[in-house]
Design a protein that fits this description.
Length: about 140
Amino acid sequence: MKKQGFLVLSSVSLFVVLVAGWPLYAQSSVTLKSDIPFDFVVADRSFPAGSYTVRTLSPGIALVQSADYKTAGIVSTLGKQNGDAATKTKLVFRRYGNTHFLAEIWTKGNDNGREIQKCKAEREMIAGMKSHEERTSVAAQLR
């Protein structure tokens, strides 16, 4: 009997947490559009230069999709806090030589962004290089 009571209480608690948390996620969901002038890599997948939509699907998941819907990928993200609010909406790339890796997603006026961890291809590139990483920002628009 105690086990059933615990299960019911646990189920009700989980339901309350999910229902209470949903509005917070809905407010933090973001869709950006950006014209990226160079080829880039996200989660070990190569994307050609072009117009892209970046959409948060949940607090830790983002979808990167080309405007023509031919190229898409899903990537895990982590929260990243900046001391000041972002002055513009942008995508930030880590660059090693001529290879760019999507690194961060920021929206204007928000001090909380999304960070994309280094994928296997990026870690392998870092291990084989003697040069350091550089950062490149590309403007984006909220949709």
